[in-house]
Amino acid sequence: MVKRIVKMTFRKEACDEFVALFEHYHTHIRHVPGCLSLQLVRAREPQGVFFTLSTWEHPDDLERYRRSELFAEVWPRTRALFAEPAEAWTADVLFDL
Q1: pLDDT score for 18
Q2: Using CA atoms, how far apart are residues 93 and 97, in angstroms rounded to an integer?
Q3: Beta bridge partners of 43
Q4: How far is residue 57's CA from residue 73's CA, in Å, rounded to a whole number?
Q5: Mapping DSSP to helix (H, G, I), strand (E, B) and coil, where does residue 19 land?
Q6: CA distance 9 to 16
Q7: CB count, 10 Å around CB of 95?
Q8: Which helix (H) or strand (E) is 4 found in, with range?
């Protein structure tokens, strides 16, 4: 099982647009084979910083999603709202308590 953590910093005026975009696509992403969970969290400070936290059954499931038509549709729309480049980490889940 792997956890994907993506830190995204949006322009202040684009935050509501990103949340609407996430609301539109989250069910589609969550139902991708191998996706076990999906969360969106917002940092209290600094403004405009969000994280997506997703859990994947296998690293191959995550990679299939990243090469999918869905990702090709979602990611450019998301990236267009950034104030700075995203940061992402894929980590192995050692304990899921």
Answers
A1: 98
A2: 10
A3: none
A4: 23
A5: helix
A6: 13
A7: 4
A8: strand 2-10
Which residues have a Cβ under 8 Å from the Cβ of 59 and sit 6 or more positions away? 2, 90
Q: Please report which helix (H) or strand (E) contains residue 73, including its range.
A: helix 69-79
- Length in residues, the chain: 97
pLDDT tens for the chain, residues 1 to 97: 999 999 999 999 999 999 999 999 999 999 999 999 999 999 999 999 999 999 999 999 999 999 999 999 999 999 999 999 999 999 999 998 8
Residue with the two structure tokens 């990611």: 75
pLDDT the model gives residue 58: 96
pTM: predicted TM-score of the whole model, two decimal places: 0.93
Domains of the chain as residue ranges with CATH: 2-49+58-92 (3.30.70.100)
